[in-house]
Specification:
Chain lengths: 248, 209
């Protein structure tokens, strides 16, 4: 009970508590009482005194502390007023609720301390060596020929839509490199995990772009970055990122 | 000897290998695999530079934590930081109460726990395991294999005082089970959204969800 008499300088600062329940548990421990006796002790007054420091906290944290302060005041005032008919009988009595909340939080605080005792960050593991796994796993669902067939089909589609080959006036330097396309496929799959082969191309993709992208795809298959599968002959090809694939 | 085979597998795999996979592909029982794993643990435990760890039905080689300082001096691997108090609290709550929603976690701690949950997810210590079938269909969280590894547990029932805590949690459950924020004095929220009267005659209604 001495704590209530000590001035501000002798108190543990409000910001060192994880939250209002943390503060209440601290006060309860200092007062050497049971949680269930909280409302017949000075703990609630002590808590309210701590609210003097509330200006030191950010808005969010401050509101969390104030919410509990309001609840404590409500409980206090309920105990001072004559008992009214229960308006919502199925709801928990706020005093009981607070006691239960404190007991539950204390349980998990203790458990987190025990977990801390078990925690280790000192173990290291070897990353898997991809070359150890046979490439046959990758093309299990589809053969290279099917992949080439699908690509030829795409090229044919590209031929019909081609705009740049009608009257070659200038020969443009191929703006896409295989490496760039590798990066593109990697970043798309990093977001989407799985996608269709044809989604890699715009409608008006030039032939060289198609070929470059296809080369990138073959490279990534070799690198075991992704797997390819096809549901039906001439069907869409689905690219799926491999579990454990590293996005450099 | 099966344990030598497993030794080679763990060395090559790097990542954890499932006991089930080993048993199925080698045509042995899981019991035999586990017995062989025990022998391996004997061989590699103690002062050995390599340890065999098991968690969630999987086996893996790990470095001996005692040599972490030297390993870090020579190889500079990426070292994880220990969890902050807030993250430990959230991790503990998720571990014992999973699956659990963010709101339920915050009810226990009495504070906003968004940041802690985000960081724990990022470190792959907790993960989304589904959605709760209540208003808003909030995400449910559970622990991961990485969680087990970090706290050196083989399985969740090795959590400290597991049985007592599970009992205690039941005792501490709130009296009003429908902790629905929008409950109006006991009125139930209907499972499926009903089409309001004034729209009943409309033809092109499409229910979202």
């Amino acid at each position: 009970m001495e704590n209530a008499a000590l001035g501000k300088n002798y108190r543990v600062h409000l910001s060192s508590f994880e939250g209002p329940l943390d503060l209440l548990l601290y006060l309860i421990k200092e007062a050497k009482i049971d949680i269930k006796d909280i409302f017949v002790s000075e703990v609630t007054e002590q808590y309210l005194k701590y609210m003097e420091d509330i200006g030191d906290l950010d808005m969010e944290k401050a509101s969390e502390f104030l919410e509990i302060a309001a609840t404590l005041l409500e409980i206090k005032s309920n105990s001072l007023l004559p008992k009214l008919e229960e308006v919502f009988p199925e709801q928990e009595d706020p005093a009981q609720k607070m006691i239960r909340q404190l007991e539950e939080y204390r349980l998990f605080k203790e458990l987190s301390e025990k977990l801390k005792g078990l925690e280790t960050v000192d173990r290291y593991y070897r990353a898997p060596d991809n070359s150890a796994f046979a490439p046959k796993v990758v093309l299990k669902d589809m053969r290279l020929e099917d992949l080439l067939d699908a690509f030829s089909r795409l090229l044919a589609r590209g031929e019909v839509k081609r705009r740049d080959i009608e009257e070659p006036k200038e020969i443009y330097k191929d703006p896409f490199t295989v490496d760039e396309k590798i990066e593109l496929i990697k970043s798309r799959l990093a977001e989407r995990r799985t996608m269709s082969f044809f989604e890699l191309f715009e409608q008006d993709a030039t032939r060289s772009e198609l070929i470059t992208t296809f080369q990138a795809l073959l490279e990534l298959i070799k690198e075991q970055f992704l797997t390819v599968s096809q549901k039906a002959t001439y069907g869409d090809i689905i690219l799926t990122i491999r579990e454990g694939a590293l996005i450099a | 000897m099966l344990e030598n085979v497993i030794e080679a597998l763990l060395f090559l795999a790097g990542d954890a290998v499932e006991v089930k996979d080993i048993a199925e592909n080698l045509g042995v029982s899981q019991k035999e695999v586990l017995e062989a794993a025990e022998k391996l643990k004997q061989k590699y435990g103690g002062a050995s530079g390599i340890h065999v760890i098991s968690f969630n039905g999987k086996l893996q080689f790990s470095s001996n934590p005692d040599y972490a300082p030297q390993i870090e001096a020579v190889l500079s691997p990426i070292k994880e930081r220990e969890l902050s108090r807030a993250m430990l609290e959230v991790a503990a709550i998720v571990a014992y109460k999973q699956p659990i929603t963010r709101l339920e976690i915050e009810d226990i701690r009495g504070v906003n726990s968004e940041y802690a949950i985000m960081m724990l997810s990022r470190h792959n210590l907790i993960q989304v395991v589904g959605r709760k079938d209540t208003v808003g269909k909030p995400l449910l969280y559970g622990t991961t294999d990485e969680f087990l590894k970090r706290f050196q547990l083989s399985s969740l029932d090795e959590l400290p005082d597991f049985d007592e805590v599970m009992e205690r949690i039941k005792v501490l459950a709130p009296k009003d089970q429908t902790r629905d924020l929008f409950a109006r004095g006991g009125q139930q929220i209907p499972e499926k959204e009903e089409i309001p009267d004034f729209l009943k005659d409309e033809e092109n209604i499409e229910m979202i969800n």
